[in-house]
Amino acid sequence: MDEPEGIASAEPAGIASAEPMEEDPKPKKTRKSRWGQEPEAPPVVDAGAIVLAGGMPGFPMPSMGAGAGVPLAGTPASMYPPGTFGGGGMDLSSAAQAAREALEKAKRAAMFQRQIQEQMAKLKNQGLAAGFLPGEGPKARKLILDEFGRELDEEGNVVPMKPQVVSTLKVNINREKEARMKKILGLKKEGAGEQNWFDNSLKTPLRTERARRRTFRFVEEGSLVKKEQRLVKKLQEKALGMDKEKEQPKKKKEEEKRKEEHDEDSKQTDMGVRKIEPKIMRREPIPEVEWWDTPFLREDSLGLKRQYTEVNVEKITPYVEHPIPIKTSTEKEVNDASMMHLTPKERKKLRRLKRQERTQEIRDKIKMGILQAPPPKVKMSNLMRVLGDEAIADPSQVERKVRQQVEQRRKEHEQRNEARKLPAEERKQKKKQKWMAETEPSTQVLVFKIKDLANKRHLFKIDMNAQQFHLTGCCISCPGVANIVIVEGGPRASKRYKKLMTRRIKWNEDQTKDDDDGDDDDDEENVTAPKLQDHCVLVWEGAVKQRNFKNWKVTHARSEQEARKTLADRGAEHYWEMLAR
């Protein structure tokens, strides 16, 4: 046997090679290169190191004889550490490490080869099981189409194609996305909460399905001819009047369907669920010739302008036609912006800014030479500063001129103010509109009950103030029954008239004048608190939409029936009934 001999001979060789290293104290002289660096020797592996490591698979074990310090043939130099072979000593630990690394590399390469062979065997077996010969693989199925473009199988049968429904509403698209996400993530239907083991906290790659491509829609043979026949039949029935008889049962069915759908929608709305369906827009059929092309076509033998008639070249010119735009009646009228009410401080600021702009504009025109600079504005306070030497020469004459200029400026100012004032008629009309307040949406109404109207002064004040405030209504005096005053007008006039009736008029002034002086002395001794006055009482105050009276009038009634008739003629009898309350 060669192996035991090699092993036996390797042990003393290794020991013998290690002993001289200990005995030789002086290091050997090494040859230096001309570049000042020792040349590197090719690394070799000692056979003893390989034997100590357990040997390498696939390599024969050489005998450790004369060639003990020579590297193995066919082995790479990188497998051996430097200084392993040569005249010097050998380090056993480094040699064993190198041998171990080489052994691991060889094992790894063998494992890769074994895996590749197993995979090739699997592929070969799969091909044989599918009915393919060795060296052949699976092939794609042939696409067979008939004369109409339909797909056929190998036996010649038409392959059925399912129509693909594509939803366009956002609600339905979101539902489909949720269904796809549940299918991808492995979620089950509702009610299976205990069997659902999906953990939302885990981070998983999001997988999405690709949108399916739209397929061709082939037209079946004879479908267009049948459609044309149906249209011709409908036109004939319409001409004979037979379509109305057929439309009646259809209308009844449609009404029944609408009622059913309405009931279903009402039920769904009660439940809180409502299905959203897309709206189908009906379009008119495309005409043979568009209206904008008819002027440029010539008439045929029948006097009609059709699609394939000749074009009238004489009508074509190099000019561009600009049609007149038609105003649409559906445009909404823009409401006028409501007037902004400024505060007194804001009004002063706005007036000051406008005056500054006007002054600056005049200054710019003077600088450009458009206007002539005005003379200096001389006053008694700046007389000496403006005129200077001229005032010193003749002060009396200068003072006379200055006073004339001041008076002239005052007159011009008053004339400008008079020019800005409205004429007397316009001013009167403006004041009347302010009191009447016709722009207000509602009218203020006041109803007063007066105890006694025997005093002519009181009646005069009631009448004249109502006319001056431009109020409408009436004053009915019915002695022994009741006296009523009804006024209608704007909020400002109503407020003034209410103050007149409740505060300004002294209803008991006649009683104080009739008292004697002796009685006054007795009253001074017994002073008591004044009693509540019920001479004039405000019965009702409110707003109405329309006025019941066209003007103001004072009337005298002899009885209650006459007073009621006066108010009933103007639709205001309910005011008399308020007096009883």
Order of helices and strands: HHHEEHHHHHHHHEHEEHHHEEHH
Helix proportion: 40-55%
Mean pLDDT over the full residue set: 75
Q: Whole-Å distance between the termini?
A: 146 Å
Number of helices: 17
Low-confidence stretches: 1-23, 42-70, 84-88, 521-532
The portion of residues forming beta strands comes to 5-15%
Question: How would you sum up this structure, described in words?
Answer:
The chain is of the alpha+beta class. The chain contains 17 helices and seven strands. It has helices at residues 2-23, 47-53, 92-129, 170-185, 223-240, 243-271, 344-368, 383-387, 389-393, 395-420, 424-436, 456-468, 491-504, 509-514, 517-525, 560-568, 574-577; strands at residues 144-145, 151-152, 443-450, 472-478, 482-489, 536-544, 552-556. It is extended, with a radius of gyration of 61 Å. Mean pLDDT is 75; it is low at 1-23, 42-70, 84-88 and 521-532.
